[in-house]
Design brief:
This protein is mainly α. The protein has a domain at 2-109: Alpha Horseshoe (Serine Threonine Protein Phosphatase 5, Tetratricopeptide repeat). It contains ten helices and three strands.
């Protein structure tokens, strides 16, 4: 659950920073990432998003979902609300709606690390291991340092795909970014010993 909470926190921080750092123009703000078309989000959208994130952080998923559904009906050009909607649906056990929300986010931003990672987790839970691997790999194409996807890919390769070479490669890559991570270091060492 810690990893899930830290992922949700990362989403919150990134999304809020994206919206808050946008240039103000009366009550309309431009929200975009470099190289993308600017997206306009007004203050009511920003407030609705902030309120929804507050509900999600307090594990009030149904209230968060309600706000995010309303928000995405009004403004469907931002990936972050769809990612958070997918996470909320996933936490409530609605995998079908979670998958749909993550897919909507990825249509807006195919390389979105959190959306790909969360979709990978969902695929793994539903036994679609090849699709899970693809989702994790998609996350790592643009964000090779996104450690949750790196770790989840290693776990998938080791425990579900029984591809020890892939698993060891992911654990070692993880440790390049976080050498102090004792758990992953232990996994890598044990895997190395088992495969020799």
């Amino acid at each position: 659950m810690n990893v899930l909470r830290s992922t949700a926190h990362l989403i919150t921080v990134a999304a809020v920073l994206l919206m808050v750092s946008a240039c103000s123009q009366d009550n309309v703000r431009k929200v975009s990432k470099p190289g993308a078309q600017p997206v306009l989000a007004d203050d009511s959208i920003e407030q609705m998003f902030t309120d929804a994130l507050s509900h999600l952080q307090q594990e009030e998923y149904h209230q968060g979902i309600e706000l995010l559904e309303t928000l995405t009906a009004k403004e469907n050009r931002l990936a972050a609300p769809f990612v958070n909607l997918g996470i909320a649906y996933s936490r409530t056990g609605n995998t079908k709606k979670a998958e749909h929300s993550f897919s909507r986010a990825l249509r807006l931003d195919a390389g979105h690390a959190v959306a790909n990672n969360e979709l990978g987790l969902l695929y793994r839970k539903t036994g679609r291991f090849s699709a899970a691997k693809s989702a994790y790999m998609n996350a790592l194409v643009e964000h090779p340092d996104y450690l949750p996807a790196r770790k989840n890919l290693g776990i998938l390769c080791e425990l579900y795909l029984h591809d020890m070479e892939c698993a060891l490669e992911q654990y070692q890559a993880y440790l390049e970014y976080a050498p102090e991570e004792e758990t992953v270091a232990r996994w890598a060492l044990e895997l190395k010993q088992r495969t020799q």
